Amino acid sequence: MLPKSRVGLIGRTGNPLMHRNPSRPLSPHLQVYKWGPHMLVSILHRVTGAGVSVAGGLALVWWLVAAASGPEDYARFHAIAANRLALIIWVPLTWALFQHSFSGIRHFVLDIGAGYELGINKLGAIATLVASTLLTILLWVYILEIRG
Amino acid sequence: MRMETPLGRVRGLGSAKSGAHNWWLERLTSVSTLLLFIWFLVALLRLPVLDFATVTEWLASPVTAVLMLLLIVSTFWHVKLGMQVIIEDYVHEEGGKLFCLVLLNFAVVAAAALAAVAVLKIAFAGTPA
Question: I need a surface site. Which of A52, A54, A92, B73 has the fewest CB within 10 A?
Answer without folding.
Answer: A54
